[in-house]
Amino acid sequence: VVSGSEQRLVDEVLAALGIRGVEVVASRLAHERGRWRVERHCFGVRKVEALRSLGLEAWDVAYTDSLADLPMLAGARRAVLVNADTTMLEQATRQLGRAPERLRWR
Fold first, then answer.
1. Is-contact 10 3, C-beta < 8 A?
2. What is the pLDDT of residues 40-58, one digit of tens each?
3. Any residues with CB less than 8 A from the CB of 101 and at least 6 apart, and which?
4. pTM score
5. What letters, b where the CB count within 10 A reaches 16 and e where it falls short, cover 52-81?
6. Cα–Cα dist 88/33, whole Å
7. How far apart are CA 69 and CA 67, in angstroms?
């Protein structure tokens, strides 16, 4: 699971859903000298960099609702845009060189 959300939040959501034993790559916060700071922001191309640091060069599926994740979609065998309007779908298709699937979640 790759997410721009904070690691501990993603871990807790997955646990609440009963999903265990999956690797999570997410943003990290660190607490230093009484302050929180971003240790790693897993966003855009950084998601791909994080996956590659784990030895992954391609992945089966990527779901996103953001064009910022086009680098991650490009590496997926199955690219899925969630709740994308027509303009977003057209932009993604142009930039990826292929049409991603479009999925509507309520």
1. yes
2. 999 999 999 999 998 998 8
3. 78, 79, 80, 81
4. 0.84
5. eeeeeeeeeebbbeeeebbbbbbbbeebbb
6. 42
7. 5
